[in-house]
Design goal:
The chain has 5 helices and 12 strands. The N and C termini lie far apart (79 Å). 24% of the residues lie in helices and 38% in strands. Keywords: Signal.
Amino acid sequence: MTRPGHKGNHRSKKKRITIALAPVVAAAVAIPLMNQAGAATPSEVSRDCAENAATLENCEFVDVQVKRNNLGPNKRVSTPFNNCGKTTEGEKAFNVSTSVTRFITLEDGFVAAADSKLANSFFEIGTKFNTTEFNLQRDDKGTGFDFSRTDTVLPDHVGFFMWSEKRTDVSGFLRATYKEAQDGQTVFFSPKENGTSVHVFYPQLLKNGTPDGRLWLRNAKCGTPQADEALNGSNPQVAEIRADSEQPGFGKGGANVTDVEIPLSEIPAP
């Protein structure tokens, strides 16, 4: 068979073969060119922005949508009190502790360095949406509460505190400007221009600096999955990580779970 690159007179059948192979050859050439550019795909843009690559002139987050009072994961924020097998209520001094911080979701799990151009952009966007009504945690420094209180746990129940933070969900895309043109252009987007898959969650704070959200005492009937999960967790933080997507929200635990909301006014300021 004649090689595609060979010139000369050929029968029409061979010409058709040459034409069919031409796009394949063109595609094979295009791939290394894209790889050399270093900014041809959304993941490469995300990586360069997150790592503050030297090839960047600037990288910024462009907001498209904003949702206030977005509730975060339901987390257990105290060690449990085991009142299983008891026929009377039990009182327990609970240590309640949690922290909130700005949370960013980039493609492929990239996290922006604190001193990167992208991190500065996130802070500026947070300032934009920070108002007298909504005080936002704009940087990546955590704030929270840590206090003790005594509460009553039902007979034959496991008692523990649950928390869900209120946050402002700002979604949009990344716009990266490179110092030198890549494939004839300097501006690239991740995941795409006007996309909304990059999310920045800014925790909402009360005027006294305490995180805004919902705190409640959960009584889980002994022998249920909710009670077993709490008792088997070695500490609250381990349980938070494992059970973020599994723990039901306030009032949604079913017939074997009783939730009692704690007013935020009873949470001491940090």
